[in-house]
């Protein structure tokens, strides 16, 4: 035990004897972290975030349920912090805005989209994205894939009910009248349930760490790094001499 204390005391004595090295260890990390703190100040104040970006929706379908679908997208609280949705009438205008990089994406709902669900066919929604903003475009593509999976599930339900009506011997007009009520019911259920199926999870970022703790730990790590470099060089020199 006495030997360990003597070695430790000798090391501390050596450090304080070389006062220039001690000043180097003390002030260089502080100066370095002052410059870093000036650059990272916004990170601690606001954190890492993605500003909301613009998306255009063009609804060419005259069916009232397509308007409800657009309304659902605009009023989605989970999307509101990420996407600003603007509804336009013209497809060409929307495509021009995407080409000019004024918006990230344009979503085109084709004419007859809801009626295609009634007939069991599929009129695909058109998605146009900007090539200059691939990350945001990929996010929009993922969101639309999620919505289209909901639409696909609804379409499967409609097809099942339609086949059931055929087996019941209903004529075409009767089936068409009843199937619209089914579509209304499925759409409204999806609208009210969707808020419960999407879970919002907040992950703590860098700005959740108190600046004093962050810079305190950083100073210690920088001092340890400089000490390791210095002693490593000293060991190499001792080996060369000995």
What's the short story on this structure?
The chain has 242 residues and is an alpha/beta fold. It has nine helices and four strands, in the order ααβααβαβαβααα.
Structure characterization notes:
The chain crosses the membrane at residues 22-44, 212-232. It comes from Alkaliphilus peptidifermentans DSM 18978. Its main location: membrane. GO terms for molecular function: ABC-type transporter activity. It is found in: Membrane. The chain is α/β, with parallel strands linked by helices. It folds into two domains: 2-47; 53-197, abc type-2 transporter like fold, CATH 3.40.1710. It is 69% helix and 9% strand. The protein has nine helices and four strands; from the N terminus they run ααβααβαβαβααα. A four-stranded mixed beta sheet has the order 2-1-3-4, sandwiched between helices. The longest helix has 34 residues, at 134-167. It starts with a helix and ends with a helix.
């Amino acid at each position: 035990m006495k030997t360990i204390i003597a070695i430790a005391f000798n090391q501390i004595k050596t450090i304080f004897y070389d006062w220039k090295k001690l000043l180097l260890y003390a002030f260089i990390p502080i100066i370095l972290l002052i410059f870093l703190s000036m650059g990272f100040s916004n990170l601690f104040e606001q954190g890492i975030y993605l500003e909301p970006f613009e998306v255009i929706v063009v609804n060419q379908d005259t069916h009232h349920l397509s308007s409800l679908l657009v309304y659902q997208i605009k009023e989605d609280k989970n999307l509101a912090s990420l996407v600003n949705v603007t509804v336009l009438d013209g497809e060409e205008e929307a495509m021009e805005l995407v080409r000019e990089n004024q918006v990230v994406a344009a979503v085109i709902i084709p004419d007859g989209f809801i009626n295609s669900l009634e007939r069991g066919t599929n009129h695909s929604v058109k998605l146009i994205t900007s090539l200059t903003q691939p990350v945001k475009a990929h996010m929009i593509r993922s969101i639309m894939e999620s919505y289209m999976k909901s639409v696909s599930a609804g379409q499967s339900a409609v097809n099942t009910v339609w086949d059931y009506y055929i087996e019941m011997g209903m004529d075409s007009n009767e089936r068409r009248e009843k199937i619209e009520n089914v579509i209304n019911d499925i759409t409204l259920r999806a609208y009210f349930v969707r808020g419960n199926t999407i879970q919002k999870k907040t992950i703590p970022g860098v700005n959740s760490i108190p600046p004093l703790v962050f810079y305190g730990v950083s100073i210690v790590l920088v001092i340890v790094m400089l000490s390791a470099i210095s002693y490593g060089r000293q060991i190499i020199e001792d080996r060369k001499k000995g």
